[in-house]
Amino acid sequence: MKKSITIIFWALLGIFFIILAQFFIPLFRRFIRSSNIFLIFPLIFFILGITLAFFAHREENKNRLRSFLLLTGISASGFFICILLHNVFYALGTLLIDTIILKYLIDFLGTIFFLLAVLVCPLSFLVGVVGFVISNIKDKKLKNKNNND
C-alpha cells in the first residue's frame, strides 16, 4: 500500500471520531456549534472518502486491503450522498401530495435512501475500517516473519 493511501485512511478515521464527538460529547458540541465550522467536518469526511476510494481503485494490488479501503471510502462518501438524496425525495414528496402514485414512489425512494444512510453506510464503514486495520496488522506480521526466516 502506498503511504498516501494510509495517511488518507487515518485522516478519514480521525474526522469520523470528530464527527462522533460532536454528537456524544456535550462540551465538544458546544465548542463546535458556537462557531461556523461544524459543517466543515462532514465536508472533509466526504472529500476524504471520495479521495480514498479513488486512490484505492487505482491501486495495482487487488488484495483484501484494497477491498477494505474501497468499502471504507465508498461508504464514507455514500453516507452524505444518501442523506442528500433522502432530503431531496422528502421535499419532492411534500410537493407531490396530489398525485398519489408518484407520492408513494417518492416516499419509498426517500425511505430507501434514509435506510442506506442510517444503517448500511455506517456499518459498511466500520467493516471497512476494522477489516483494513486487521488485514494491515496481519500483512505486517507476515512480512516480519518472512524477513526473519
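the 2nd protein, sequnce then structure:
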Amino acid sequence: MTESPAKPIIRVPAVSRARSGTATTDNYQNLAARTGVGTNNVSSEGTYGFNPVSRNRQLLEWMYRGSWIIGKAVDVVAEDMTRAGVDIASVMPPDQIAKMHAGARMLGIWDSMEDGIRWARLYGGAILVMLIDGQDVATPLNPTAVGQGQFRGLLPLDRWMVQPSFSQVITDLGPDLGKPLFYDVTANAPAFQGQRIHHTRVIRLEGAKLPYWQSQTENLWGMSIVERLYDRLLAFDSTTQGAAQLVFKAYLRTYKVKGLRQILGGPAAAQKVLFEQIDTIRLYQSNEGLTLMDADDEMDAHQYSFGGLSDVMDKFGQQIAGATGIPQVRLYGETPAGFSSGESDLRQYYDTVNSQQNTMLRRPVLRILEMLCRSEIGQEPPDGFGFEFEPLWQLSDKEKAEIAKSVTETVTTAEGSGTIKRSTALKELRQQSDVTGVWSNITDDDITEAENEEAQAPDPEEIDPTAVPEPDADQPRRIDPLSLESDRVPVVPAAA
C-alpha cells in the first residue's frame, strides 16, 4: 500500500488569522509592535486631503503679490522659455529672416507669450488669441487668407477671462481631439468681451497637467503650480517668520530687585524711583559706562543660540526648489554650499526648460512664424521651413575657442585626406559659426566657386596613372646618355 504524499504545511501569520475574511495587504504590518501602515499608530492616520487652491483666484493673486517665492516660481520658467527666442532654419534670404525677427519684436510676440505662460502657471490655464485684422474671431482661421500686415500680435487671456465650450469639443483626429471647440470671452476681459473665439485662432496653454476627471472639475483646464508647493511654502514662511521673531529675543537682560513686589504694591513714589533707576542703567550702560545698583540687586544676560536653525531653513528651501522644479541657484540666486557651483543643476534645469518648450510651444510657435512670414514678407513659408529654440546655456569665450579649434582641425584633416570635398568642408566650417561665431564670413559664393572647381576637375577614377604626359613641342629636348631618353626642358641662356 502506497502512502499518499504529505501535504505542505502553510503557516498563516497571526495578523492574517486575526483578520480572517478581510482583504489582504501588501505592506508590512506588525500589530503587536504597532508598526506599518494600517496599524494603530500615528503614521497610519496620515493621508492627503483635497485642497483645491487652483479654484481660489483671489488667494492665488494674493500669494503672487505677497510671496516673492511664488512670484519667482511662476515667472522664472515663463521668462526662460521665451527670453532666448528661436533660430529660424530656412532657405529664405537672410534679410527676410531678419525682417521676421524684427516683426516679432515690434508686435511683442515673445512678451505676450511670456505673459500667457505666466498666467497659465499661476491660474492653471490661459490662451493666446492670434490677432488677425479684418477677420471674424468666431470663424476658423484660414492661414492662406492672411495678407501682408494683417497679423497684429497675440492677446493673453487667463482661464478666468474665458469659458471653454463643454458641449462642443474638437472631433477631428489629432493632438487637439477632445479639447474645447470655442472659447467664450467673459465681460471682465480686456478685449473681445462677450465674443466667441474659434479654437484655430487660439494657442491653448495649461499649468500643471491633470488626469482627465480632475481636468473636468477644473473646467477643462490644468492646475496651478502653486497648489503642489502650498504646504511647503507655509512651512518655509512659518520657519522664516519664527526665526525673525527670535532675533528680538536673541539677547535678554534680567534685573533682580529685592522686595520688588512690595515696591510695586507700595507708594507711587517708590515705583517712580525704581523706574528712574532702570532708565538710568539703560542710558549709561555701554562699553565705557558704569552700572550702579544696590548691593542686593543682581543683573544677568541671557543669549539665545541659533545653532541648527540655518540647517532647518536650508532644508525647507530645498523642498521649495524641489516642488517648483527650479534649482536653488536660479530660484534664490545663490550658489549651493559645498563643492558644487550649481552649474550642473542649472544645465539640467535648462534641459528641462527645453523639453517643455518642445512639448508646449513647438506647434504654437510654428503657427506664429507662419503668420509672421505671410504678414511681414507677404508670402507663404517655403518648403522645409522650421526653427529651433535658442539654447539658454551660453558658452564662454574659452569654450567657444576650444570648440572652434577642434572642429576646424577635424574638418581640414578630413579634407586633406580626401574624405570630404572642399565645398563640404566650407559648409561644415560655416555651420559651426552658429555656436562659436568663427567662419561666419564664408559666403554662398565661396561655396559655389568651390563646387564649380570640383565639377570641372577630372574624375580621379578616369585618370590613368601609367600614362606618360605628352612633351611640349615648344621646349627643346634633352638627351639622357644613360637611358637614351629625352625630355623637353626650358632653355637656360648662357652667362655673359
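The chain is about 40% helix and 10% strand. Confidence is low (pLDDT under 50) at residues 12-24, 479-487.
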